[in-house]
Amino acid sequence: MILEQGNVYHVYNQGNNRGLIFFRRENYHYFLNKIAVHIVPYADVLAWCLMPNHFHLMIAVQKMNESYQLNNSIAVMLRSYTRAINIQEKRTGALFREGTKAEFLDSIERGKLRQSKRVTWSHPLTGDAVPEEEYLQTCFNYIMNNPVKAGLVKRISDWEFSSFREDHRLHNVIVNKKLIRELGLAATPVTG
Length: 192
What we know:
alpha+beta, five-stranded antiparallel beta sheet, about 20% strand, globular
């Protein structure tokens, strides 16, 4: 995973063998603190969602000379979280699947899309092709609505561990609200 300055990525991983990665409420908070420490210094967080057995982040890389640090910092974040959970749960081995994914979504200049380096992207739920100009918004909605689609809640505002609550001032803030507004991103809720 090579993350480049000015690019927006959908970063995600799930529990090894689709197992749980969050066992207690405080695990979610601990992981959010890890995001604040290991990702926010290198990237703007646009959206996030923590699910019982996986996580999603939408990030915009800030600084070219620090992209290596960001790659390394994500790995350190996951390793240190795994160590803490292994101690807590008296378990050993990998908590996450090997190889965290980072799908390129778009390139941006502050506040506007550059639409370069395009790749074919399909909607995560329907598999339908997504027009290039809708990549960011489609992924943003997918991340926000993940708990509803998984049947965990009926409304996205009911899931405590997503940036939807941040955007509506119900949670501590790690997202860059200004950049979200500049890019015209807004969650379109679905109901379960």
